Every structure is written in structure tokens, then in C-alpha cells.
Amino acid sequence: MIIIGGGLNGSVMALALAGAGLRSVVIDRLAVARRRDPDFDGRSYALANASQRLLATLGLWEHLRDHAQPMLEIKVTDGRAGEGPSPFVLEFDHAEIEEGPMGYMVEDRHLRNAFLDAIEASDLVTHLTGVSVVSHAVEDAHASVTLDTGDMIHGAVVIGADGLHSPTAKRAGVGHMKWDYGQTALVCAISHEKPHNGIAHQFFMPAGPLAILPLTQNRASIVWTETEHEAKRIQGLDDEGYLDVLRPRVGDFLGPISLAGLRFTYPLSLSLAHHFVTPRIALLGDAAHRVHPIAGQGLNAGLKDVAALAEVLALAHRRGEDIGRLDVLERYQQWRRFDTAALALATDAFNRLFSNDNSLLRLGRDLGMGLVNALPSVRRSFIREAAGLTGDLPKLLQGKPI
After folding, report:
1. pTM score of the predicted model
2. Inside any domain, residue 16
């Protein structure tokens, strides 16, 4: 297998295939030194319970456990900056399910280093770094890619894990349904005085949601949505000016706050590929779909792709099938496309419902959150959904080897 893209999804894809005894080549345009960074830069990811199971099954969690902050509760509220939250609070507690924490927060640097260490230790993964793919070709019996070095690599399947503007998808003629939200996510991390107690907060404000996600060592990850114009203005402020804008949004429940790491911005959009597969080509992660971060499901959706595609390829290989045939790859597409489309529609609807200051909609959503919070069975179903424990889960997400 040829995996184009050495980010988180591409790396785990190679390790999932290796766990099933299949060889792969990972082509990464960045040098290893760019991937490895011992310093915290402010970026972190929310891993659902099911994603943690996948990493544990692949032997990766033992290297991440000490760096992971369990999310024990999630509190969802509505309101305006400086006014405090609405009295209607939707609360999810991990004690309501048997499987443990709903998820974990892990810093980007720890994930990348753990994945790189595992790839370097695997005899079944070849990692080519600092090189790019300039073309690919699909034949009846194999696919090939040509690198910018002039070298050519052959394989049964080319897996595009090369991000939102995937060159693999473009070369394969796969288009995307896209629209721009006119919003930008401001991302940073803060240090704070009071303990967070493992509680994640989602605060819906008129411009968009603010997520306050617990990290280790009295720190929190901030994912904060504003309009494009306002985000550009805020990002242009110095650190103290930035904090002056952030403080009334966060409130004082964590005590005094300060910045930890760098600040980032990401334009927000929805993208869904018309097809996830063509003959001998499969797309996963952002190359196949990208949704609003309102539910924190971006990486988790990519890891679901990894688990499903690895299982489809491994089982087909054991049956002696040509794993690059379209009818084989379509099993992966059928498994994942409805789920990703449903996720895209749900996050889009939530963003439209909550990212406004319409008084009637505010009243309706507040009453809705209060109603859900009062119904234990409905609340439990939301908790299981947030933990990634619903639907037709691939084996790796169940904590089982392929």
C-alpha cells in the first residue's frame, strides 16, 4: 500500500495495516524534524473513547497514557461574552456509561512523536520524508506514484491522507461539495489557577462556539469561533490584548489565566468528497471530509476511516482478493460515507442553530437543552455518541485486532 500524507491519519493508517500484517510506504512531504517538536505549541486533540481503544489495540496508548487528560464531564451552555452562561445547562457525566471516560485530551506533539516512534520501529512500514508525489497512475493490476525525486513506487492501493486540499483527490478527478462558514477558529492553550476537574465546557455564543477542553497540569485547550473579520482582528493583537478579549468569554471559574504555547487560526468550512474511492484509490480524513469543529469530531472521524479501511483491506487480502479493485474499496465507502455525511449535516445544523443571537432560537435551544438534561435515557444516548460508541464500529474501535 502507498499512503500519501504523513500526518496523524496517514501514520495511524500505516500502523493499522502493519497490525494486520500488511506492508505500506508512507510518503510525507515534511521532514521528520518538522514532525517532531519537543515543545508544546498549543495544539491538542480530543480523542473519543472509541479512538482511545483503537490506539490501545495498536500498542500506542501505553506511550500516550501519561500525557492524556480524561474528560469526565461535558457541560454545554448558551450565552453571551461577559454575561455568563444561561441557567439551562446540558451536562454529560462519564459515570452514566460503563466504558469509562467519554474521551481524552492529548497534545499534538505527544501524538505525533508516539506515531513516529512506532513507524520507525515497524518492519512493515517504509517512511519516506521530505518528498512529494507529483503524479500517479492506475493500471489493471497495480497503481504507481512518481515522486519529485524522479523515483517511482508501485502498490496495490494508493491511500490519500493528504488533507483538505488533497492533491490525490484532484489527480483522481474526485470533486468535493464545499461551503465556507465565514467563521474562523482561534486556537490556543491557557494555564489557569483553579483545577478543571476533567470537565470540558462548550459555550455557545452568537458568533460561534467556545470550547474549553481540559489538559494535564492545570491547562486547557481553547477552540474559539469568531467571524472571519473579528478573528483576524483578535489574532493581530499582542498576547495581553488577546487575553483581554478571551477572559470575559472564559469567565472566572478557572481563576486567572495566561497563554501557554502559540496561537493559531483556522478558517472553517465544510467539505465532503463526491466519492471516497476510485479504482485503486481511497481517500480518508480531511481528504474525504471536513466538518465544523463544533463537536470536536475531526480527528475521530478520520480514525474511523482508518479503522474501516484497514479492516476492509485486511479481510479482502486474507480472502485472496485484489484489494485495489473498485468493488473491494467500495465496501469502505459504503461503511463510512453515510456516517460522515450525517456528521457533516449534524454539525452544520448545530452551528446554524447556535451561532446566532436570535431571541426565539435562543429560547428554543435553551429549553431543548434543559429537556434533554432532564431525560436520562436521551442524555445517555448523547454521551455514547460523544464517546464514539454507537453505530457499526470497525473492530479496532471496539478494541479488537483486525
Report:
1. 0.92
2. yes
